[in-house]
């Protein structure tokens, strides 16, 4: 909530890198989940049980 934050330049660079890494990881995870969902959905759509 802003109580603790990096003060040094190296700390700020590290914090930015961690933030970008977290956003990228979340985006990759979401894209993988959506891709798998679409594969299952399309398989059931074309080959109904």
UniProtKB/TrEMBL annotation:
It holds the Pfam family Ion_trans_2. Gene3D superfamilies: 1.10.287.70. Keywords: Membrane, Transmembrane, Transmembrane helix. The keyword Membrane applies. The lineage of its organism: Eukaryota, Metazoa, Spiralia, Gnathifera, Rotifera. The chain crosses the membrane at residues 12-34. The keyword Calcium does not apply. This is Potassium channel domain-containing protein. Residues 1-38 form the Potassium channel domain.
């Amino acid at each position: 909530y802003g109580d603790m934050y990096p003060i040094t330049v190296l700390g700020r660079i590290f914090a930015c890198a961690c933030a970008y890494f977290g956003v990228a990881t979340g985006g990759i995870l979401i894209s993988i989940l959506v891709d798998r969902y679409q594969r299952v959905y399309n398989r059931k759509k074309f080959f109904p049980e």
